[in-house]
Amino acid sequence: MWLTYCGGMKIKLLEIKELSKLYESSNRVNVQALNSISVDFESTGRVFIVGKNSSGKSTLLNLVGAMDKPTSDSIIVDGKNINKQKSSFLGILKYFKLIIHKQFLMMLLIIGLFSVVFTIFGSFYALYKYDSHDALVASLEENAEYVIPVTEYVHTARFIDDELIYFGVFPVQRGPFTEIRERLSHVVANRAIILESYYMQKNFQDFLDYHISIAPPYSFSPYTSTSFTDAIIIHDFSQFHLTLLHGRTPVEPNEVLIYDYMAHNLLSTDVIEFLDMEDLIDYTLIDKDTQLELKISGIIKSNYEKYAYTLDGNYNDYPFETKYLARLQSIYALPEFLEKLKLDDSYFSFNEITFKSNVSNNIDEVNNYNKFRMINNLESYEFIGSIFDYESGIVLSKHQLARIINVDPSEIDANLVDSYVFEGVFRYLWIDESTDKTSRATVVVPIIGVYDSDAFNPNVIDFLHGQDTDHFKLNGTTRMNYLMLGTNWIENSKLLNDIKLPYLPYSFFIENPEYEEYGFTEYTSYSIIIEEASGYVKSIKNYGQSYIYLAFGLLILSLVAYVQSYNKKHSYKIAVMSMQGANYIHITIVIAIHLLILITIAFLLSIFPILSRIRVFNNDLAKNLHYDVFFFSMNIIDFLIIYGVSIIVLFVGIIFTFLHFRNKQPIKMMKEIL
Question: Which of 114, 210, 229, 342 is the least crowded, having the fewest Cβ atoms under 10 Å away?
Answer without folding.
Answer: 342
